[in-house]
Amino acid sequence: MTSQLVRAAISIPANIAEGNARKSRKDYAHFISIARGSAAELDRLLLLVKEIGLAPSDAFTEPAAQVNRVGQMLNVLHRKLSS
Q: What is the pLDDT of residues 11-65, one digit of tens each?
């Protein structure tokens, strides 16, 4: 579980950076879409870890809020790149 959490968390900024380095808005939007998927995966993994009791519930409030905020920002960026 830890490995999956780390991979999903690393994937978000890595895909943002890779997309930003691309030459077209369409390519950038594609990588932002992948980053959004990684954010959703991370959000779900955090929820699962909380639900199965692998860590105290209060340990997830702030990370979950941050992942949610990043997801919202990625949605806005994706919408702007796609228009």
A: 999 999 999 999 899 999 999 999 999 999 999 999 999 999 988 888 888 999 9
Please state which of the four CATH numbers 1.10.10.60, 1.20.120.80, 1.20.1440.60, 3.20.20.70 is assigned to the domain occupying 2-82.
1.20.1440.60
pTM over 0.70: yes
Q: Is the pLDDT of residue 82 over 90?
A: yes
- For residue 20, give the nearest of 8, 7, 33, 29 by alpha carbon: 29
Distance (Å, rounded) from C-alpha 15 to C-alpha 32?
A: 7
Of 17, 20, 74, give the one whose Cα is nearest residue 43.
74
Contact 60, 44 (CB under 8 A): no
Domain limits, the chain? 2-82
Quick check: helix, strand or coil at residue 23?
A: coil
